[in-house]
Amino acid sequence: MKVYTIGYEGTSLEIFLSCLRENKINFLADVREKPLSRKPGFSKNLLSERLCALGIQYKHFQKLGCPADIRKEYCQNGNWQQYCFRFKEHLEGNLETLETLVRYSEKFTSAFMCFEADPNKCHRLLIAQRIDVQYKTVIQNLHPVNSRQMVTIFAAPEPCFA
Fold first, then answer.
1. Which ranges of the chain does DSSP label H, i.e. alpha helix?
2. With contact defined as beta carbons under 8 Å apart, do 111 and 7 qualify?
3. Is the pLDDT of residue 130 over 80?
4. Element (H, E) at 111
5. pTM of the full predicted structure?
6. Max Cα separation, the chain?
7. 119: pLDDT confidence band, cut at 50, 70 and 90?
8. Is residue 25's pLDDT more than 50?
């Protein structure tokens, strides 16, 4: 199972799509709660159309997005460990959706997408850690902006899942 994550912050749609193609991604899992973006091309419908034209499947996993109340609390207090704890609780309540994501990832070279460029500041890190703990799968992050450092292994100084 080959699994990646990717954030689109600071990049264009063309560079983002090029990164997916270069890494032979054929399934993009959108793990944003709301698949909308002010950034051109990254809202669900247009993104899905562009991916389809490239032969990349797209699926929105709303239940794996970070709920607004957790995001708001983190913006107010900046407490990453509390954010991790709350998001972990959220994930535990959505294990069926997580298992669906894993089943897709077993069939396809997949990437989990969100906005944040740095996976260590994004809930997709927590999704990746949860999958790694349960399925023993190394999940890497793609960097569409910096092609010289395209893939980095997830590393969190204090993992939220053990």
1. 13-22, 44-53, 68-77, 80-92, 95-107, 123-135
2. no
3. yes
4. strand 110-114
5. 0.89
6. 42
7. confident
8. yes
